[in-house]
């Protein structure tokens, strides 16, 4: 039972220090080992989240770490970043306020447990945003330290990401309050050979992304299952077993050189692994073979590399023309049969740009990232839609403000103005800022 006066109560008013603004505590949202999170309302302003630290965790070092994050500002829009420190004349201790995650977002862990899996396109969007946020964090000189499925929230309808619990973020050599969550810790952190850094973040990120796509943990296979199943006299605790396979004897479930820890029969990973293109398989293999044992930026897969991979993954998504199952184009296996119906059908047309190849199936989009080659992957400049009259065909709609020049093979050039669409067929499209060719996939 927490002593009176150490935590705010609903209805009480506390003060934002930098803004010198009162904020009213509305109700309790949840709590953890460090403190309690409340919904709080700023007078004449938005509703925010307020985290108040328990006396045992409200150290001067933690307070300074939060103050530094407030001063820096958020490196990416996905972070629910500390906005201001908070104090009270009636309650001991301190807290901080951050943006409140909207109700459309659910915990990443819940997404993994849902019976209905999101489409490949949605998962690609989630993976891209998560990798992009961590890339921006690292570029700003910070590491997250405790990236895990409880700190990430997703909107499975829009494929959007929100990252909370950012009070453990800091520099590689800064004050460390937590070492992470065991199943997501890099092996060298489990062994306490180092504190969390940007390099150890990369292992945690790879685990999250693997779980997103494969529905399982990259180190939990037959060998680990046997450890948990053994009931001998010297049976170890679950935590001791996890320390062993996450820190001292990690073995990737799809290690090409050692099959001793393959997924157990019926594990979703066995079904999901073959569905992905070679570039996805290669990246995860590097992350969980060499990356387990060589904790360096030259070996671990960087967040920037993951971002590019998930952009490419999203660009390759399409529906099987025969059964409508979600599929992904694999340039290494272009004649790969559909995983659902087993048929080898004609592939959709694709738009070949200087740095990207986008399969032109319904719901595919073009962004400034595709056309300008910048980092804006959220603004839609074009969208693929079903053809209004011809079943099985698609149109490309101009959502930007530039006029396109389209020269379909064997036809006279045409212009496509903003809000207009044209039936997709082989030829050249000049978008003004870039030019691409629509072609058949090999």
Topology:
Blueprint: E1 13-16, E2 21-31, E3 35-42, E4 47-53, H1 60-72, E5 84-87, E6 95-99, E7 106-107, H2 108-113, H3 120-139, E8 152-155, E9 160-163, H4 187-190, H5 198-214, H6 222-229, H7 238-248, H8 268-272, H9 278-287, H10 290-293, H11 303-315, E10 317-319, E11 326-328, E12 349-352, E13 357-359, E14 365-366, H12 368-371, E15 382-386, E16 394-398, E17 404-408, E18 414-416, E19 421-423, E20 427-430, E21 435-440
Antiparallel strand pairs: 1-2, 1-5, 2-3, 3-4, 4-6, 5-6, 7-8, 8-9, 10-11, 12-13, 12-21, 14-15, 15-16, 16-19, 17-18, 17-20, 20-21
Helix pairs in contact: 3-5, 3-11
Q: What summary fits the major beta sheet? A: 6 strands, antiparallel, barrel
Can you say what the CATH homologous superfamily of the largest domain is?
Transferase(Phosphotransferase) domain 1
CATH topology of the largest domain: Transferase(Phosphotransferase), domain 1
> Radius of gyration, rounded?
25 Å
General shape:
globular
CATH architecture label name of the largest domain? Orthogonal Bundle
Q: Roughly what percent helix?
A: 25-40%
Number of strands: 21
**Count of helices?**
12
Which stretches of 5+ consecutive residues score pLDDT under 50? none
Mean pLDDT figure: 93
Q: Can you put this structure into words, describing what you see?
A:
The protein has 442 residues and is of the alpha+beta class. It folds into three domains: 13-99, 2-Layer Sandwich (Phosphorylase Kinase, domain 1); 106-307, Transferase(Phosphotransferase) domain 1 (Transferase(Phosphotransferase), domain 1); 348-440, Tumour Suppressor Smad4. The protein is 26% helix and 21% strand. The strands form five sheets. Strands 1-2-3-4-6-5 form a six-stranded antiparallel β-barrel. Strands 13-12-21-20-17-18 form a six-stranded antiparallel β-sheet. A four-stranded antiparallel β-sheet has the order 14-15-16-19. The longest helix is centred in the first third of the chain and has 20 residues, at 120-139. The termini are far apart.
